[in-house]
Design a protein that fits this description.
mainly alpha, 6 helices, single chain
């Protein structure tokens, strides 16, 4: 449950970064988003995550099969997202809308994996939202691609994650 909450908080942080970066570009705000949005936010989030895990004294002494499968799926997702980002920013092969759409589709697949491993409906709903955002982003323009990713992290990742954590906490009390 601690990791679920932390994952939801990270999704909320990424939603904030994507939405702020979209607003900077959309409304021509004279701010360097890489420094003032991404670097500062992610640095503070890393420190806060370390303190959060230390405060809950989370020990990773053994990894059951479910955690190993989820971890390998996450590593695969990050690698695939890295290749999509490289295709856009490194090689210039895809537009921002296509990059956002492909990323959202892969994040939807990650949510589907989580739903099947956890046997929970909340990540399944997140997968459906991600796939809807992928379709919307692919049909949209480059201008709003970061908006769709930000909304995806908010409504398809953070919200279902917090709902799952709340349900698990209630089930533990009963």
């Amino acid at each position: 449950m601690v990791i679920d909450r932390l994952g939801s908080l990270w999704a909320l942080i990424l939603a904030k970064c994507f939405l702020a970066q979209w607003a900077i570009g959309r409304f021509s705000v004279p701010v360097n988003g890489l420094i003032y949005i991404w670097t500062l936010t992610l640095a503070m989030a890393l420190v806060a995550s370390a303190y959060y895990l230390h405060a809950h004294r989370l020990a990773f002494r053994f990894f059951p099969t479910q955690v190993r499968v989820a971890s390998s799926g996450l590593v695969g997702l990050v690698a695939a997202l890295g290749f999509v980002a490289y295709a856009h920013w490194g090689l210039g092969l895809t537009g921002l809308a296509a990059t956002a759409g492909l990323s959202a589709a892969m994040l939807g697949s990650w949510s589907l994996i989580q739903a099947s491993l956890r046997r929970a409906w909340e990540p399944l709903m997140g997968a459906l939202v991600w796939w809807g955002i992928a379709l919307t982003s692919l049909h949209g323009g480059d201008v709003d691609a970061l908006l769709w990713l930000g909304l995806g992290f908010l409504f398809a990742q953070a919200l279902p994650g917090f709902m799952l954590s709340l349900r698990m906490a209630r089930e533990q009390r009963v």
